[in-house]
Amino acid sequence: MKVGLYGNQTEKTKEVMNTFDRLCQEGCFVRDDEHPDVVITVGGDGTLLGAFHRYRDQLDSIRFVAIHTGHLGFYTDWRNFEVDQLIESLKQDKGERVSYPLLDVNVKFKSGDVVRYAALNEATLRKVNGTLLCEVYINGELFENFRGDGLCVATPTGSTGLSKSLGGAVVHPRAEVMQMTEMASINNRVYRTLSSPMIFAKDNVLTLRPESKEGMVMAIDHLTYDANEIEEIQLQISGERISFAAYRHTPFWDRVEDAFIGSREVNCRGNEEVR
Ligand code: NAP
Ligand code: MN
Description:
The protein is an alpha+beta fold. The protein has helices at 11-25, 45-54, 83-91, 162-165, 252-261, and strands at residues 2-7, 30-31, 38-43, 63-68, 78-79, 97-109, 114-119, 122-127, 132-138, 141-154, 178-185, 198-200, 206-210, 216-220, 223-226, 230-245.
């Protein structure tokens, strides 16, 4: 198995990376950061986002394994103290995988250039120095004229990230949908938006046509881009997906409970429960 390593800069991460490096030198795995079969990320959910964009062009041949050096994350299945167990699973790999939907983000610039991005969590368009004016089209038909801070379009696995903070629904990743949430829309007698988060089916195409001239920023996950020369952004659930090596399964709603509720650790009577 060819293994690529991708980590952040913390001491805990360095320890885990050194363990895998040693195993590669001992011949258990082949270290290949250029064309790996499996990419092991060490850090947080944000680290996995970084690795996704690093290996964006090899998604059909790569599976990710994400180790968290802090609390359990959403993409990060493994904790740093479980590395031995993970190594055993990797040695007995049978190609197990689980995959999640991605977002296709097609950006047309005023120059006529077209650039295609992929988002794992979400794409956002904002104006940082005033009100964003933006037409929103659904399947080519004008739906609303947005005025406010910005718009966010998230994948199912992105629904627990920024989208949730914007009031979006948490979406099970087997639902192949994208969700749009608003950032501080202006709603009064003159200006009107739907104001609710919207969930779009797989074949729906969303088009954002910004009318503002300056101060606009587009973000794809943790990456930000100047958006002032953008004519329109087309968003749709992608035909491509991201795959993870699924050696064990943590049900999605268990992760949500663990991350946001935590009631199973201490139940409502205050008694500790065994997990
Ligand atoms: P960051 O500032 O470290 O991320 C903010 C937090 O979001 C971190 O705790 C991160 O977890 C967590 N996170 C990332 N993806 C998530 C997901 N799919 N579900 C639940 N939590 C998630 O920046 P970053 O690490 O580069 O990550 C960028 C992402 O953070 C963005 O794509 C956006 O979804 C999210 N974000 C959220 C807010 C907000 O809720 N107000 C603001 C900015 C960014 P780790 O600590 O494990 O990295
Ligand atoms: Mn982070």
